[in-house]
Design brief:
alpha+beta, Arylamine N-acetyltransferase fold, eight-stranded antiparallel sheet, 10 helices
């Protein structure tokens, strides 16, 4: 497909075309994460998750919805390619909140600039990490003050974070260094992305089939909805609670995350059946 950069820039509220350098990459990823929410609502609504370029652009840009990593980083990869960046997808294992060795169910991007590899990720729903150079021991500080580190071990590259657990989606964040995900630089053909996406969107008793997950990066924080549990950290202030009214849930989706669902769609998520039965 011919990628519509003007429509994408309007969607992420970016006024100028970024340069094909690390600063430009960082600017683009940050704008993307501030504008497009992470969410798995269509999976819970039985619509699945198409990750071809046309479907992803139509959903995230034209219909102004969000998506999860395979959708977010497909769109981001297409935008980077259209801008002239050298980029290819990778698959990662998410250790954040894991109790056993996880599968390769997270898509990230390898961007090469002047011979240096960079980790870029517009689709991790648990927190926000800035772009990172593929250098063992490299560190970077996110706008919310959280420190990130890349290391290399027998699993490959490992991204870890050290910062306020309130700037995550609440998955057993803990204190100190917490591993987010690991990845290798192996080539990833489209069929592997398709198979990983299919498993992630359909396997029973997993995060994206059992839970309704929504999050968004804020200028100085993070906001998340996991089923009816809401948490928000912004400018040093924390807010948390449980939403008991589907009307409030629908309003919160719209006002905080920019996602507009109908009353019927909210009902079909199945989050308020027990409340309504009381």
């Amino acid at each position: 497909m011919s990628f519509d950069l003007d429509a994408y820039f309007e969607r992420i509220r970016l006024a100028e075309r970024p340069a094909c350098d690390p600063d430009g990459l960082a600017t683009l990823q940050r704008a993307h994460r501030l504008a497009i929410p992470f969410e798995n609502l269509d999976i819970r609504l039985g619509r699945g998750s198409a990750i071809d370029s046309e479907s992803v652009f139509a959903k995230l840009v034209t219909r102004r919805r969000g998506g999860y990593c395979f959708e977010q980083n497909r769109l981001f990869c297409d935008a980077l390619t259209a801008l002239g960046f050298a980029v290819r997808p990778l698959l990662a294992r998410v250790w954040f909140g894991a109790t056993a060795t996880p599968g390769r169910t997270h898509m990230v991007l390898l961007v090469t600039i002047d011979g240096q590899g960079w980790l870029a990720d517009a689709g991790f729903g648990g927190s926000y990490s800035p772009i990172m150079p593929l250098i063992d021991g490299a560190k970077a500080t996110a706008p919310d003050g959280v420190l990130f580190r890349l290391t290399y071990d027998k699993r490959g590259w490992v991204l870890s974070r050290d910062g306020n657990p309130a700037t995550t989606d609440g998955r057993d964040a803990g204190e100190g260094w917490v591993e987010q995900f690991s990845f290798t630089l192996d080539e990833v053909p489209q069929i592997d992305l398709a198979m990983s996406n299919h498993w992630t969107a359909t396997a029973p008793n997993t995060r994206f089939t059992d839970l309704v997950v929504v999050s968004i990066v804020l200028p100085h924080g993070f906001a998340a909805l996991t089923d009816r549990a809401y948490r928000r950290h912004s400018a040093g202030e924390d807010m948390a609670g449980v939403i008991d009214d589907p009307r409030v849930y629908r309003l919160r989706l719209s006002m905080m995350f920019g996602i507009d669902l109908t009353e019927d769609e909210v009902a079909r998520l199945g989050l308020f059946e027990a409340v309504g039965a009381d």
